[in-house]
Design brief:
five-stranded parallel β-sheet, 5 helices, 34% helix, globular
Length: 136
């Protein structure tokens, strides 16, 4: 995990977040986080292989099909899927600032895929919790 000053500086640059595994089912962590980030003024881009509308927003089947640049990729998928999502992230142009794996999700393989890319990797941390904790 980054030091608080590094994390705050990084998150202050974030305006657009792609949420992989986005669903708008009440009570699910991804729903709470997505709604909180929208309430904080961030542009959210939901990514889900089947759903086409999450939170009333156009939803894309894969990260590579997102038509706008994203500053941060927030992953709500099991660890075994993270390396593939890291490879998708690496292929984006422009590249995002960070690849964030939510609470309970860690993948050394994803970190290895992104090593040396300039994309910061955060594991096992809730973006909403950190956003609020840092006063953003």
């Amino acid at each position: 995990m980054l030091f608080d000053d590094e994390l705050k500086a990084l998150l202050q640059k974030v305006k657009t977040v792609a949420i992989i595994g986005a669903v708008d089912k009440p009570g699910r962590p991804v729903d709470m986080v997505g709604r909180a980030l929208m309430d904080a003024g961030l542009r959210i881009v939901p990514v889900h292989p089947v759903r086409r509308d999450v939170w009333g927003l156009p939803t894309y089947p894969s990260l590579g099909e997102v038509p706008v640049g994203v500053d941060l990729v927030d992953v709500f998928r099991a660890p075994e899927h993270c390396a593939a999502h890291a490879a998708e992230t690496l292929a984006l142009a422009p590249r995002p600032l960070a690849f964030w794996m939510q609470s309970g999700i860690a993948s050394p393989e994803a970190g290895a895929v992104l090593a040396g890319s300039g994309i910061r990797v955060v594991e096992d941390a809730c973006l909403m919790v950190e956003w609020r904790r840092l006063g953003l």
